[in-house]
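Could you join me in thinking about how sequence relates to backbone shape in a protein? Would you write everything just below, so we can both look at the same thing?
***
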Amino acid sequence: MARAFWKPTAASASTPSRNAYMPKLVEQQQLCDNRWQVLDDQQPIPPSHYLLPLARWLAAREIAADGAPFGVIIDGDQPLEELAPTLAELPLIAIHFAKFADGRGFSTARLLRGRYGYRGELRACGDIFRDQLFFLQRCGFDSFELPDEADQSWLQSLHDFTVSYQAAAR
């Protein structure tokens, strides 16, 4: 069963914790509240903790000048060359997985960590599964948006294996 990526609505921009679907979030291997809002191309910028689509970020980088925590959300198939010059300005990059079988987000994370030297937070969101968390972490992801049905076993999956054949991105 594919899970739809959360699409922001006009109501969600004002009070995300009450009006919008807020997926569970794993940060620093702990389950926590997700205070980040995903904005579309038209929604006004909230005071804090928002993710912009890549095109909106590239078109209007000055909107984050007030110092509010922000980031961008990209698809795994988006080229990184346009984003590369602005990486130092981004505390968070969320990579959206449209389908669980699409591995391009894994490659994108490895490229961001390896080739581009990105040191900020990388978040996996979209159609991800428990069995992928360990490998997502090894590719450089720091945080993960989980579906509603996720439970404590999802956190345990970060430690499913004790031996790895390849080096981790972090």
User: Anything to note?
Assistant: Confidence is low (pLDDT under 50) at residues 1-21. The beta strands are 24-27, 30-32, 37-38, 50-53, 70-75, 92-97, 121-126, 143-146.
